[in-house]
Amino acid sequence: MRALTLCILLLLSLLGASRAAADDIVPSERVSSAVLVREGPSTDTAILGRLRPGDSARLVGEVSGWYRVELPDGTHGYVSKAWTLVIGGTPPGEALTGAAYKVHVIDVGTGLAIFVEGRDFALLYDAGSQDDLHDGDENRVVAYIEAVRPGLARIDHLILSHPHKDHLQLMPDVFRRFEVGHVWESGRVNKTDGYCHFLKAAMSEPGAQYHDAIAANATRSVTFTGSGCNGAVTVRESAMMDAAPVSLGVGARMRFLYRDPANHSDPNENSVVVRLDLGSRRILLAGDAEGGERKPPSEPPESGSVEAKLIACCAADLKSDVLIVGHHGSLTSSRRAFLDAVGASIYAVSSGPYPYRRVRLPDDEIVAELQERGEVLRTDKSDLFRTGDEMGSCEMRTRKIGPDADETPGGCDNIVITIGGSGAMTADYNPAVD
């Protein structure tokens, strides 16, 4: 029976239009009747169709335990990985080429966007910029994700660290391009057009579950009066963001170490700090968490700052292998006591040419401190490169992911941290999409 099935599958891979083509899904040898095609990645969702032995469907994406497929009539649905096989190609997760996980710090110019991929999940932490706000096909974050994970259809977890332009402005396009499973943020409202667009997109996403640190299974209304986005948004809260670990996929989970929805004077004080446990490695995403006013890293974190609160409540939980450095490498963050608790060996700094209070980040003192501790990679820094007979720097370079030569910052130094199945870890720049 097994040999006959394998022969049939081989023939299917060669027959063309009416049979399984490259990157198609077919029922496995275990199937005697049919595989159910469901509306969502759950057995609790409606049945849209059936894949019988000899049928095939086009693979368009994947989530934990499920393939997303397109049937011959154009219907999109989900089939269980346990009852199906991929024919003629590799599923999207195999694009990791031997790596168990990859963490991409996308060069968005001045801002932050972190794309994390495992074999059975995809996660995005922030997507904003101060100086490259093109949307649609020119959205820098969407273009990067599509380049490194072609065919990806779903972002399982989307996290907004806090409602500032340089962390959220590019997010609405993410909802338009990808299915989003879970949205996580503190719940701290910022009455800006950017946050208004983000919240409306999150509430309009079919099937998405929205989580904040305010309440569970409740409804609230937020009213905006901006010129570019206004009106009331009804926020429907799912399970509350808390300290309990959240499963991402096999061998991966995340923990929210800091979440605060209070109406602080500066939304930086609401930064959601997340630790990702990817296999045996820990990655700490600090957002714009601060240690106080601009001071040398040798100064202790100021009382009431996010860094001080984290050290007081859960210093042991901060221990990580990689730190995505807080507040773009500003002197407001990365106090020595905080860095001691983290103890990372790799530091990634996302910054660009836009000045914060007339200061261009990262600050030299922070970079020097980090370099004493481990390897430092920066999205605003590259080796010199040659164009014809001229040498240039990253700031001069215009060829980047998305539209080339658009003369806006960013796209020069995307950082990728690769974690192998054995836990081996490397960090480098990603020239393949520059």
Describe this structure in words.
The chain is α+β, with helices and mostly antiparallel strands. It has 2 domains: 2-89, SH3 type barrels; 95-433, Metallo-beta-lactamase, Chain A. The protein contains 8 helices and 26 strands. Mean pLDDT is 86; it is low at 1-22 and 383-399. This is Competence protein ComEC. Residues 1-22 form the signal peptide. Keywords: Signal. It holds the Pfam family Lactamase_B.
Short description:
By secondary structure, this protein is α+β, with helices and mostly antiparallel strands. Helices cover 17% and strands 31% of the residues. Strand 9 (113-118) and strand 10 (121-127) form a beta hairpin.
Architecture of the largest domain in CATH? Answer: 4-Layer Sandwich
Percent in strands: 25-35%
Cα-atom radius of gyration: 23 Å
Strand order of the largest sheet: 13-12-11-10-9-8-25-26
Organism: Sphingopyxis panaciterrulae
Domain SH3b: 26-88
Pfam family, one: Lactamase_B
Signal peptide: 1-22
Which helices and strands occur, and which strands form pairs?
Layout: H1 2-15, E1 24-27, E2 35-38, E3 47-51, E4 57-63, E5 66-70, E6 76-80, E7 84-87, E8 99-105, E9 113-118, E10 121-127, H2 140-148, E11 154-159, H3 165-168, H4 171-177, E12 179-184, H5 193-204, E13 209-211, E14 219-225, E15 230-236, E16 246-249, E17 252-258, E18 273-278, E19 281-285, H6 306-318, E20 322-324, H7 336-342, E21 346-349, H8 364-371, E22 375-378, E23 385-387, E24 390-392, E25 415-420, E26 425-429
Helix pairs in contact: 4-5, 6-7
